[in-house]
Amino acid sequence: MKTFAERNFPGRLIAVEGLDGSGKSTQIYLLKRWLEAEGVRVYFSEWNSSELVKSATSKGKKRELLTPTTFSLIHATDFADRYERHLLPLLRAGYVVLCDRYIFTAFGRDVVRGCPPDWVRGIYNFAVLPDLTFFFKADLEVSLRRILEGRPKLKFFEAGMDMRLSADPYESFRIFQGRILEQYLAMSTEFNFNVIDANQRVEVQQAIVRQIISQGIDLSQFKRTNPLPLPPPLRVNPKSVELEDESLE
Amino acid sequence: MKKKNQNHIIVPQPGQRRFYGLGIPGVKLEELIGKLIVVEGADGSGRSTQIAQLVNSLETGGHATVQVGLKRSSLVSEELAQAQEGNILSRTTLSLFYATDFADQLENIIVPALKAGFIVLADRYVYTLMARDMVRGMDEAWLKNLYGIAPVPDAVFYLEVEAEELVQRNLSKNATLDYWESGMDLGLSRDMFDSFLQYQTAMQCAFRELQKSYGFTIVNGNRSVQAITQELRKKISAVLAAK
Q: Chain B closest CA to A153's CA: distance in Å?
Protein backbone atom coordinates (compact mmCIF):
# COMPACT_ATOMS: atom_id res chain seq x y z
CA MET A 1 0.00 0.00 0.00
CA LYS A 2 1.17 3.49 -0.85
CA THR A 3 0.53 7.01 0.41
CA PHE A 4 -1.28 9.72 -1.54
CA ALA A 5 2.07 11.43 -2.21
CA GLU A 6 3.55 8.17 -3.50
CA ARG A 7 0.50 7.71 -5.72
CA ASN A 8 1.09 11.20 -7.16
CA PHE A 9 -2.10 12.72 -5.83
CA PRO A 10 -1.95 16.50 -5.76
CA GLY A 11 -3.47 16.51 -2.24
CA ARG A 12 -2.26 15.16 1.09
CA LEU A 13 -4.10 13.25 3.77
CA ILE A 14 -3.37 13.58 7.47
CA ALA A 15 -5.13 11.11 9.78
CA VAL A 16 -5.43 11.07 13.53
CA GLU A 17 -6.12 7.89 15.42
CA GLY A 18 -6.50 7.04 19.07
CA LEU A 19 -8.95 5.75 21.63
CA ASP A 20 -12.11 7.63 22.49
CA GLY A 21 -11.06 10.18 25.08
CA SER A 22 -7.45 10.45 23.91
CA GLY A 23 -7.98 14.10 22.93
CA LYS A 24 -7.38 13.52 19.23
CA SER A 25 -10.44 15.48 18.12
CA THR A 26 -9.21 18.57 19.96
CA GLN A 27 -5.82 18.21 18.34
CA ILE A 28 -7.18 17.86 14.81
CA TYR A 29 -9.43 20.87 15.34
CA LEU A 30 -6.43 23.00 16.39
CA LEU A 31 -4.56 21.67 13.39
CA LYS A 32 -7.33 22.80 11.09
CA ARG A 33 -7.31 26.30 12.64
CA TRP A 34 -3.56 26.56 12.14
CA LEU A 35 -3.62 25.42 8.51
CA GLU A 36 -6.49 27.78 7.72
CA ALA A 37 -4.55 30.67 9.22
CA GLU A 38 -1.57 29.66 7.07
CA GLY A 39 -3.78 29.97 4.00
CA VAL A 40 -3.59 26.28 3.19
CA ARG A 41 -6.38 24.62 1.20
CA VAL A 42 -7.48 22.44 4.06
CA TYR A 43 -10.54 20.32 4.50
CA PHE A 44 -11.61 18.68 7.72
CA SER A 45 -13.57 15.55 6.89
CA GLU A 46 -16.55 15.33 9.15
CA TRP A 47 -17.43 11.93 7.84
CA ASN A 48 -20.98 12.68 6.81
CA SER A 49 -22.47 9.37 5.88
CA SER A 50 -24.93 9.24 3.05
CA GLU A 51 -28.53 8.73 4.13
CA LEU A 52 -28.82 5.24 2.73
CA VAL A 53 -25.79 3.81 4.44
CA LYS A 54 -26.67 5.63 7.64
CA SER A 55 -30.16 4.20 7.60
CA ALA A 56 -28.91 0.60 7.29
CA THR A 57 -26.23 1.11 9.91
CA SER A 58 -28.47 2.62 12.53
CA LYS A 59 -31.11 -0.04 11.91
CA GLY A 60 -28.50 -2.74 12.43
CA LYS A 61 -27.28 -1.10 15.59
CA LYS A 62 -30.65 -0.34 17.12
CA ARG A 63 -31.95 -3.83 16.58
CA GLU A 64 -28.62 -5.34 17.57
CA LEU A 65 -28.63 -7.29 14.31
CA LEU A 66 -24.94 -7.07 13.59
CA THR A 67 -22.37 -9.83 13.80
CA PRO A 68 -18.62 -9.10 13.66
CA THR A 69 -18.73 -9.74 9.91
CA THR A 70 -21.74 -7.55 9.10
CA PHE A 71 -20.53 -4.89 11.54
CA SER A 72 -17.25 -4.79 9.66
CA LEU A 73 -18.89 -4.78 6.22
CA ILE A 74 -21.44 -2.09 6.93
CA HIS A 75 -18.71 0.17 8.28
CA ALA A 76 -16.55 -0.61 5.26
CA THR A 77 -19.52 0.37 3.05
CA ASP A 78 -19.84 3.62 4.93
CA PHE A 79 -16.11 4.26 4.64
CA ALA A 80 -16.09 3.49 0.91
CA ASP A 81 -18.98 5.88 0.36
CA ARG A 82 -17.22 8.73 2.16
CA TYR A 83 -13.93 7.86 0.54
CA GLU A 84 -15.17 7.78 -3.05
CA ARG A 85 -17.70 10.57 -2.75
CA HIS A 86 -15.82 12.89 -0.46
CA LEU A 87 -12.12 12.29 0.09
CA LEU A 88 -10.96 11.32 -3.39
CA PRO A 89 -12.29 14.43 -5.15
CA LEU A 90 -10.65 16.68 -2.54
CA LEU A 91 -7.35 14.86 -2.84
CA ARG A 92 -7.54 15.05 -6.60
CA ALA A 93 -8.16 18.78 -6.27
CA GLY A 94 -5.02 19.32 -4.19
CA TYR A 95 -6.45 19.75 -0.70
CA VAL A 96 -4.82 18.91 2.59
CA VAL A 97 -7.47 16.66 4.07
CA LEU A 98 -7.67 16.04 7.80
CA CYS A 99 -9.37 12.84 8.91
CA ASP A 100 -10.54 12.13 12.41
CA ARG A 101 -9.97 8.36 12.24
CA TYR A 102 -9.16 6.42 9.09
CA ILE A 103 -8.81 2.74 8.13
CA PHE A 104 -6.79 1.91 11.25
CA THR A 105 -9.88 2.38 13.40
CA ALA A 106 -11.52 -0.44 11.46
CA PHE A 107 -8.40 -2.60 11.59
CA GLY A 108 -8.32 -2.38 15.38
CA ARG A 109 -12.03 -2.62 16.06
CA ASP A 110 -12.87 -5.45 13.64
CA VAL A 111 -9.90 -7.58 14.61
CA VAL A 112 -10.80 -7.23 18.29
CA ARG A 113 -14.28 -8.46 17.31
CA GLY A 114 -12.70 -11.58 15.81
CA CYS A 115 -12.52 -10.84 12.08
CA PRO A 116 -9.37 -12.23 10.41
CA PRO A 117 -6.80 -9.39 10.14
CA ASP A 118 -5.90 -10.22 6.53
CA TRP A 119 -9.55 -10.20 5.52
CA VAL A 120 -10.17 -6.75 7.01
CA ARG A 121 -7.00 -5.31 5.50
CA GLY A 122 -7.81 -6.80 2.13
CA ILE A 123 -11.22 -5.13 2.13
CA TYR A 124 -9.75 -1.72 2.86
CA ASN A 125 -6.89 -2.00 0.41
CA PHE A 126 -8.75 0.25 -2.05
CA ALA A 127 -7.94 3.12 0.33
CA VAL A 128 -4.63 4.90 -0.19
CA LEU A 129 -2.51 5.32 2.95
CA PRO A 130 -2.34 8.68 4.74
CA ASP A 131 0.75 10.79 4.18
CA LEU A 132 0.96 11.33 7.93
CA THR A 133 -0.79 9.44 10.70
CA PHE A 134 -0.77 10.67 14.27
CA PHE A 135 -1.58 8.24 17.01
CA PHE A 136 -2.55 9.87 20.29
CA LYS A 137 -1.43 7.51 22.93
CA ALA A 138 -2.96 8.18 26.31
CA ASP A 139 -2.88 5.84 29.27
CA LEU A 140 -5.88 3.58 29.08
CA GLU A 141 -7.08 4.80 32.48
CA VAL A 142 -6.87 8.45 31.40
CA SER A 143 -8.97 7.84 28.27
CA LEU A 144 -11.47 5.75 30.17
CA ARG A 145 -11.83 8.38 32.89
CA ARG A 146 -12.46 11.12 30.33
CA ILE A 147 -15.22 9.11 28.71
CA LEU A 148 -16.75 7.44 31.72
CA GLU A 149 -16.55 10.38 34.13
CA GLY A 150 -20.03 11.62 33.28
CA ARG A 151 -21.46 8.08 33.28
CA PRO A 152 -22.70 8.49 29.70
CA LYS A 153 -25.19 6.02 28.38
CA LEU A 154 -23.01 3.65 26.39
CA LYS A 155 -24.59 2.14 23.32
CA PHE A 156 -24.57 -1.60 22.79
CA PHE A 157 -21.92 -1.91 20.09
CA GLU A 158 -19.85 1.05 21.24
CA ALA A 159 -19.41 -0.66 24.61
CA GLY A 160 -18.50 -3.90 22.83
CA MET A 161 -21.49 -5.61 24.47
CA ASP A 162 -21.87 -7.87 21.42
CA MET A 163 -18.67 -9.64 22.44
CA ARG A 164 -20.09 -10.65 25.82
CA LEU A 165 -16.98 -9.46 27.60
CA SER A 166 -18.98 -8.47 30.65
CA ALA A 167 -22.61 -7.98 31.57
CA ASP A 168 -21.75 -4.49 32.83
CA PRO A 169 -21.51 -2.00 29.94
CA TYR A 170 -18.80 0.06 31.67
CA GLU A 171 -16.67 -2.97 32.40
CA SER A 172 -17.24 -4.23 28.86
CA PHE A 173 -16.19 -0.85 27.45
CA ARG A 174 -12.99 -0.93 29.53
CA ILE A 175 -11.98 -4.37 28.29
CA PHE A 176 -12.92 -3.51 24.69
CA GLN A 177 -10.92 -0.26 24.69
CA GLY A 178 -7.94 -2.04 26.25
CA ARG A 179 -7.94 -4.57 23.42
CA ILE A 180 -8.22 -1.86 20.78
CA LEU A 181 -5.25 -0.08 22.34
CA GLU A 182 -3.22 -3.28 22.00
CA GLN A 183 -4.13 -3.44 18.31
CA TYR A 184 -3.12 0.20 17.76
CA LEU A 185 0.24 -0.41 19.39
CA ALA A 186 0.80 -3.50 17.27
CA MET A 187 0.07 -1.51 14.07
CA SER A 188 2.16 1.47 15.07
CA THR A 189 5.43 0.48 13.37
CA GLU A 190 3.87 -1.22 10.36
CA PHE A 191 1.96 1.92 9.37
CA ASN A 192 4.50 4.54 10.48
CA PHE A 193 2.34 6.12 13.15
CA ASN A 194 3.70 9.31 14.66
CA VAL A 195 3.02 8.42 18.25
CA ILE A 196 2.12 11.45 20.35
CA ASP A 197 2.15 11.18 24.12
CA ALA A 198 -1.42 12.29 24.83
CA ASN A 199 -0.80 12.57 28.54
CA GLN A 200 1.00 15.86 27.85
CA ARG A 201 -0.63 19.31 27.82
CA VAL A 202 -2.73 20.18 24.76
CA GLU A 203 -0.30 22.96 23.71
CA VAL A 204 2.73 20.71 23.92
CA GLN A 205 1.10 18.04 21.79
CA GLN A 206 -0.08 20.56 19.22
CA ALA A 207 3.40 22.08 18.89
CA ILE A 208 4.86 18.64 18.20
CA VAL A 209 2.16 17.82 15.64
CA ARG A 210 2.66 21.12 13.81
CA GLN A 211 6.38 20.58 13.71
CA ILE A 212 6.06 17.08 12.26
CA ILE A 213 3.67 18.37 9.59
CA SER A 214 5.95 21.27 8.64
CA GLN A 215 8.79 18.83 8.20
CA GLY A 216 6.79 16.17 6.38
CA ILE A 217 4.71 18.27 4.00
CA ASP A 218 5.79 21.31 2.01
CA LEU A 219 2.80 23.44 2.96
CA SER A 220 3.72 26.26 0.57
CA GLN A 221 2.54 23.99 -2.26
CA PHE A 222 -0.94 23.91 -0.83
CA LYS A 223 -1.48 27.61 -0.18
CA ARG A 224 -4.32 29.40 -1.88
CA THR A 225 -3.30 32.12 -4.27
CA ASN A 226 -6.17 34.26 -3.00
CA PRO A 227 -6.44 33.43 0.69
CA LEU A 228 -9.96 33.16 2.03
CA PRO A 229 -10.96 34.99 5.20
CA LEU A 230 -10.49 32.87 8.30
CA PRO A 231 -13.73 31.02 9.07
CA PRO A 232 -15.17 31.48 12.53
CA PRO A 233 -14.25 28.90 15.17
CA LEU A 234 -16.59 26.00 15.74
CA ARG A 235 -18.83 26.30 18.75
CA VAL A 236 -18.06 23.09 20.53
CA ASN A 237 -19.35 22.15 23.89
CA PRO A 238 -16.16 21.36 25.82
CA LYS A 239 -18.12 18.96 28.03
CA SER A 240 -19.14 16.72 25.18
CA VAL A 241 -16.81 13.86 24.50
CA GLU A 242 -17.14 12.15 21.19
CA LEU A 243 -17.53 8.46 20.92
CA GLU A 244 -16.55 6.83 17.71
CA ASP A 245 -19.91 5.58 16.56
CA GLU A 246 -21.95 8.64 17.34
CA SER A 247 -21.76 10.05 13.85
CA LEU A 248 -23.65 7.05 12.56
CA GLU A 249 -26.65 7.23 14.84
CA MET B 1 -3.92 -9.91 0.81
CA LYS B 2 -3.07 -13.52 0.10
CA LYS B 3 -2.28 -14.00 -3.55
CA LYS B 4 -1.25 -17.62 -3.56
CA ASN B 5 -4.73 -19.10 -4.07
CA GLN B 6 -5.70 -16.71 -6.79
CA ASN B 7 -5.86 -19.20 -9.60
CA HIS B 8 -6.21 -22.31 -7.58
CA ILE B 9 -9.27 -24.31 -8.54
CA ILE B 10 -11.60 -24.84 -5.61
CA VAL B 11 -14.09 -27.40 -6.80
CA PRO B 12 -17.08 -28.08 -4.56
CA GLN B 13 -16.45 -31.36 -2.81
CA PRO B 14 -18.87 -33.48 -0.88
CA GLY B 15 -18.06 -34.37 2.68
CA GLN B 16 -15.65 -31.76 3.87
CA ARG B 17 -16.99 -28.28 4.43
CA ARG B 18 -14.71 -25.29 3.98
CA PHE B 19 -14.70 -21.59 3.34
CA TYR B 20 -13.41 -20.06 0.11
CA GLY B 21 -11.14 -17.76 2.08
CA LEU B 22 -10.69 -16.63 5.63
CA GLY B 23 -14.27 -17.44 6.63
CA ILE B 24 -16.53 -15.93 9.27
CA PRO B 25 -15.63 -15.75 12.94
CA GLY B 26 -17.66 -17.93 15.26
CA VAL B 27 -18.80 -20.55 12.73
CA LYS B 28 -17.71 -24.15 13.20
CA LEU B 29 -17.56 -25.76 9.78
CA GLU B 30 -18.11 -29.30 11.01
CA GLU B 31 -21.51 -28.21 12.31
CA LEU B 32 -22.73 -27.29 8.84
CA ILE B 33 -24.17 -30.70 8.11
CA GLY B 34 -26.80 -29.68 5.52
CA LYS B 35 -26.20 -29.24 1.81
CA LEU B 36 -25.75 -26.00 -0.06
CA ILE B 37 -26.83 -25.98 -3.69
CA VAL B 38 -26.45 -22.88 -5.82
CA VAL B 39 -28.17 -22.03 -9.08
CA GLU B 40 -26.58 -19.12 -10.93
CA GLY B 41 -27.57 -17.36 -14.12
CA ALA B 42 -28.88 -14.10 -15.56
CA ASP B 43 -32.51 -12.99 -15.27
CA GLY B 44 -34.37 -15.07 -17.80
CA SER B 45 -31.95 -17.98 -17.60
CA GLY B 46 -34.60 -20.15 -15.95
CA ARG B 47 -33.14 -19.99 -12.45
CA SER B 48 -36.38 -19.57 -10.54
CA THR B 49 -38.15 -22.21 -12.61
CA GLN B 50 -35.41 -24.72 -11.95
CA ILE B 51 -35.28 -23.92 -8.24
CA ALA B 52 -39.05 -24.40 -7.94
CA GLN B 53 -38.68 -27.79 -9.64
CA LEU B 54 -35.84 -28.76 -7.35
CA VAL B 55 -37.79 -27.79 -4.22
CA ASN B 56 -40.63 -30.03 -5.39
CA SER B 57 -38.50 -33.03 -6.08
CA LEU B 58 -36.40 -32.62 -2.93
CA GLU B 59 -39.38 -32.14 -0.63
CA THR B 60 -41.28 -35.06 -2.10
CA GLY B 61 -38.08 -37.01 -1.56
CA GLY B 62 -38.22 -36.11 2.16
CA HIS B 63 -35.60 -33.38 2.31
CA ALA B 64 -36.22 -30.13 4.18
CA THR B 65 -35.31 -27.11 2.06
CA VAL B 66 -34.69 -23.41 2.55
CA GLN B 67 -34.43 -20.87 -0.24
CA VAL B 68 -32.19 -17.83 -0.23
CA GLY B 69 -31.43 -15.18 -2.81
CA LEU B 70 -29.76 -11.83 -3.21
CA LYS B 71 -31.10 -8.56 -1.82
CA ARG B 72 -33.31 -10.27 0.74
CA SER B 73 -31.53 -9.46 4.01
CA SER B 74 -33.45 -7.76 6.77
CA LEU B 75 -30.44 -5.53 7.36
CA VAL B 76 -29.90 -3.68 4.10
CA SER B 77 -32.31 -4.94 1.43
CA GLU B 78 -34.55 -1.83 1.59
CA GLU B 79 -31.63 0.53 1.35
CA LEU B 80 -30.10 -1.48 -1.49
CA ALA B 81 -33.32 -1.22 -3.44
CA GLN B 82 -33.35 2.54 -2.92
CA ALA B 83 -29.71 2.82 -3.90
CA GLN B 84 -30.52 1.04 -7.15
CA GLU B 85 -33.47 3.32 -7.82
CA GLY B 86 -31.32 6.41 -7.54
CA ASN B 87 -28.05 4.97 -8.84
CA ILE B 88 -26.25 7.18 -6.37
CA LEU B 89 -23.61 4.96 -4.83
CA SER B 90 -20.16 4.61 -6.27
CA ARG B 91 -18.86 1.20 -7.25
CA THR B 92 -16.86 0.18 -4.17
CA THR B 93 -19.69 1.34 -1.95
CA LEU B 94 -22.32 -0.57 -3.88
CA SER B 95 -20.10 -3.62 -3.95
CA LEU B 96 -19.66 -3.56 -0.17
CA PHE B 97 -23.37 -2.90 0.33
CA TYR B 98 -24.15 -6.09 -1.60
CA ALA B 99 -21.52 -7.95 0.39
CA THR B 100 -23.20 -6.80 3.61
CA ASP B 101 -26.54 -8.07 2.34
CA PHE B 102 -24.96 -11.40 1.46
CA ALA B 103 -23.15 -11.73 4.80
CA ASP B 104 -26.35 -10.96 6.70
CA GLN B 105 -28.23 -13.74 4.93
CA LEU B 106 -25.27 -16.06 5.20
CA GLU B 107 -25.13 -15.74 8.96
CA ASN B 108 -28.84 -15.49 9.66
CA ILE B 109 -30.32 -17.94 7.17
CA ILE B 110 -27.78 -20.12 5.38
CA VAL B 111 -25.58 -21.06 8.33
CA PRO B 112 -28.46 -21.85 10.74
CA ALA B 113 -30.22 -23.91 8.04
CA LEU B 114 -27.05 -25.87 7.27
CA LYS B 115 -26.58 -26.50 10.98
CA ALA B 116 -30.11 -27.86 11.13
CA GLY B 117 -29.37 -30.23 8.26
CA PHE B 118 -31.51 -28.48 5.63
CA ILE B 119 -30.82 -28.38 1.94
CA VAL B 120 -30.25 -24.73 1.14
CA LEU B 121 -31.12 -23.69 -2.40
CA ALA B 122 -29.44 -20.42 -3.22
CA ASP B 123 -30.93 -18.41 -6.06
CA ARG B 124 -27.51 -16.93 -6.97
CA TYR B 125 -24.54 -16.73 -4.65
CA VAL B 126 -21.25 -14.84 -4.49
CA TYR B 127 -20.42 -15.52 -8.15
CA THR B 128 -23.08 -13.18 -9.54
CA LEU B 129 -21.94 -10.48 -7.12
CA MET B 130 -18.33 -10.99 -8.14
CA ALA B 131 -19.07 -11.10 -11.87
CA ARG B 132 -21.09 -7.87 -11.71
CA ASP B 133 -18.26 -6.12 -9.91
CA MET B 134 -15.62 -7.51 -12.25
CA VAL B 135 -17.53 -6.13 -15.23
CA ARG B 136 -17.50 -2.79 -13.40
CA GLY B 137 -13.74 -2.88 -13.04
CA MET B 138 -13.29 -4.10 -9.47
CA ASP B 139 -10.16 -6.10 -8.72
CA GLU B 140 -10.71 -9.88 -8.80
CA ALA B 141 -8.26 -10.54 -5.95
CA TRP B 142 -10.05 -7.96 -3.80
CA LEU B 143 -13.39 -9.65 -4.49
CA LYS B 144 -12.00 -13.08 -3.68
CA ASN B 145 -10.80 -11.87 -0.31
CA LEU B 146 -14.10 -10.12 0.39
CA TYR B 147 -16.16 -13.20 -0.44
CA GLY B 148 -13.76 -15.49 1.38
CA ILE B 149 -16.51 -15.47 4.02
CA ALA B 150 -18.59 -17.81 1.84
CA PRO B 151 -18.70 -21.54 2.53
CA VAL B 152 -17.91 -23.64 -0.54
CA PRO B 153 -21.25 -25.05 -1.77
CA ASP B 154 -21.85 -28.73 -2.41
CA ALA B 155 -22.90 -27.96 -5.97
CA VAL B 156 -23.01 -24.87 -8.17
CA PHE B 157 -24.87 -24.77 -11.47
CA TYR B 158 -24.49 -21.86 -13.83
CA LEU B 159 -27.32 -21.71 -16.34
CA GLU B 160 -25.70 -20.21 -19.39
CA VAL B 161 -28.07 -18.72 -21.94
CA GLU B 162 -27.02 -16.73 -24.99
CA ALA B 163 -27.60 -12.99 -24.71
CA GLU B 164 -29.96 -12.96 -27.73
CA GLU B 165 -32.09 -15.67 -26.14
CA LEU B 166 -32.11 -13.77 -22.81
CA VAL B 167 -33.50 -10.70 -24.57
CA GLN B 168 -36.35 -12.75 -26.01
CA ARG B 169 -37.16 -14.35 -22.66
CA ASN B 170 -37.03 -11.06 -20.74
CA LEU B 171 -39.20 -9.27 -23.26
CA SER B 172 -41.81 -12.01 -23.40
CA LYS B 173 -41.99 -11.91 -19.58
CA ASN B 174 -41.86 -8.19 -18.77
CA ALA B 175 -42.09 -6.39 -22.11
CA THR B 176 -39.15 -4.25 -20.96
CA LEU B 177 -35.50 -4.73 -20.12
CA ASP B 178 -34.29 -4.02 -16.59
CA TYR B 179 -31.95 -1.04 -16.13
CA TRP B 180 -29.39 -2.99 -14.07
CA GLU B 181 -29.66 -6.24 -16.02
CA SER B 182 -28.88 -4.12 -19.08
CA GLY B 183 -25.84 -2.65 -17.35
CA MET B 184 -27.06 0.87 -18.15
CA ASP B 185 -24.96 2.29 -15.28
CA LEU B 186 -21.84 1.35 -17.26
CA GLY B 187 -22.61 3.70 -20.12
CA LEU B 188 -21.87 1.03 -22.74
CA SER B 189 -24.57 2.42 -24.99
CA ARG B 190 -27.50 4.81 -24.69
CA ASP B 191 -29.52 2.18 -26.49
CA MET B 192 -30.92 -0.24 -23.91
CA PHE B 193 -31.18 -3.19 -26.27
CA ASP B 194 -27.62 -2.74 -27.39
CA SER B 195 -26.40 -2.23 -23.84
CA PHE B 196 -28.22 -5.37 -22.66
CA LEU B 197 -26.49 -7.52 -25.26
CA GLN B 198 -23.07 -6.08 -24.53
CA TYR B 199 -23.52 -6.30 -20.76
CA GLN B 200 -24.82 -9.86 -20.71
CA THR B 201 -21.99 -10.97 -22.96
CA ALA B 202 -19.49 -9.32 -20.61
CA MET B 203 -21.17 -11.05 -17.65
CA GLN B 204 -20.77 -14.41 -19.37
CA CYS B 205 -17.08 -13.71 -19.88
CA ALA B 206 -16.76 -12.83 -16.19
CA PHE B 207 -18.51 -16.08 -15.23
CA ARG B 208 -16.20 -18.06 -17.49
CA GLU B 209 -13.26 -16.32 -15.83
CA LEU B 210 -14.61 -17.15 -12.35
CA GLN B 211 -15.27 -20.71 -13.40
CA LYS B 212 -11.50 -21.14 -13.76
CA SER B 213 -11.00 -20.65 -10.03
CA TYR B 214 -14.34 -21.80 -8.65
CA GLY B 215 -14.95 -24.76 -10.91
CA PHE B 216 -18.73 -24.67 -11.00
CA THR B 217 -20.81 -26.65 -13.44
CA ILE B 218 -21.82 -24.75 -16.55
CA VAL B 219 -25.24 -25.91 -17.71
CA ASN B 220 -26.46 -25.20 -21.22
CA GLY B 221 -29.56 -23.15 -20.46
CA ASN B 222 -30.67 -22.81 -24.06
CA ARG B 223 -32.45 -26.18 -23.83
CA SER B 224 -35.95 -27.04 -22.66
CA VAL B 225 -36.95 -26.74 -18.99
CA GLN B 226 -37.38 -30.51 -18.70
CA ALA B 227 -33.99 -31.32 -20.17
CA ILE B 228 -32.29 -28.98 -17.71
CA THR B 229 -34.31 -30.22 -14.73
CA GLN B 230 -33.31 -33.75 -15.54
CA GLU B 231 -29.63 -32.86 -15.68
CA LEU B 232 -29.78 -30.94 -12.40
CA ARG B 233 -31.67 -33.73 -10.60
CA LYS B 234 -29.17 -36.31 -11.67
CA LYS B 235 -26.25 -34.24 -10.44
CA ILE B 236 -27.95 -33.34 -7.17
CA SER B 237 -28.77 -36.96 -6.38
CA ALA B 238 -25.09 -37.67 -6.66
CA VAL B 239 -24.34 -34.83 -4.23
CA LEU B 240 -26.94 -36.10 -1.77
CA ALA B 241 -25.69 -39.66 -2.02
CA ALA B 242 -22.18 -38.59 -1.03
CA LYS B 243 -21.83 -38.34 2.72
A: 25
Residues of B whose CB is below 8 A from A126: 92, 139, 142
Q: Which domain holds residue B124?
A: 29-241
Read out DSSP for A63-125? TT---HHHHHHHHHHHHHHHIIIIIHHHHHTT-EEEEES-HHHHHHHHHHTT--HHHHHHHGG
Residue type, B45: S
What dihedral do alpha carbons A140, A141, A142, A145 form, nearest 10°? Answer: 120
Q: Is residue B1 part of a domain?
A: no
pLDDT at site B79? 83
Taking the model in full, what pTM does it have?
A: 0.87
Is B26 in CB contact (< 8 Å) with chain A? yes
Which value does ipTM take for this structure? Answer: 0.84
Which of A70, A92, A118 should be substituted to probe chain B, the one whose Cβ sees the most B Cβ atoms within 10 Å? A70
Query: Which residue ranges make up each domain of chain A?
Result: 12-220
Residue B9 lies in a domain: no
Chain A, window 12-51: residues with a beta carbon less than 8 angstroms from a chain B beta carbon: 50
Q: What is the pLDDT of residues A112-155, one digit of tens each?
A: 999 999 999 999 999 999 999 999 999 988 888 888 887 777 88
- CATH number where B223 lies: 3.40.50.300
Chain B contact present for A65, CB below 8 A: yes
CB–CB of B97 and A53 under 8 A? Answer: yes
For chain B, the domain total comes to: 1
Whether B19 contacts chain A with CB within 8 A: no
Tell the CATH superfamily of the A12-220 domain. P-loop containing nucleotide triphosphate hydrolases (3.40.50.300)
pLDDT tens digits for B31-59?
999 999 999 998 889 999 999 999 999 99
Q: What is the pLDDT of residues A91-104, one digit of tens each?
A: 999 999 999 999 99
